Amino acid sequence: MIQRVGTISIFVEDQDRAKAFYTEKLGMDLISDDELYPGADARWLSVAPPGAETRITLYKFDDNWEHYRATFQQSQSLTLHCADIDETYRLYKERGVEFLGEPETQFWGRFVIMKDSEGNRLILVQV
User: Fold this and answer.
1) Residues near 79 by Cβ (< 8 Å), separated by ≥ 6?
2) DSSP-based three-state secondary structure for 62
């Protein structure tokens, strides 16, 4: 039986820029930042919200991932939950995070879409 989600992958052009965005602007913990293999241009780079089990792996987009070209810089359908969307929105705006509007209310909760440093769209949610 499946016990948990281990990793979610997001493709990025610049791993250093993505690392700064996810750790400094979103406040995630750096879990790993290691060579993919000796001499590799890309790294095994993963982050996670403090205390979370699921990790977000920030893969450098290159020819090995060409079959994912259509998903690059598109909505990743990744939802990041928060307790107070208005406060989180305000804090992230101060840190320079780009949003595609303001938080909206739905029958199930509130959400807003933001863009990471690489143009990927992420959904911030308060249920």
Assistant:
1) 111, 122, 123, 124, 125
2) coil
pLDDT tens digits, residue range 99-124? 999 999 999 999 999 999 999 999 99
Record the pTM.
0.86
What is the distance between the alpha carbons of residues 90 and 117, in angstroms, rounded to a whole number?
A: 18
CATH architecture assignment, domain 7-126:
Roll (3.10)
Structure tokens at 70: 């259509």
Q: Backbone phi, then psi, for 110, in 5-degree steps?
A: -130, 155
Cα gap 96→48, rounded to integer Å: 20
What letter does residue 23 receive in the DSSP assignment? Answer: I
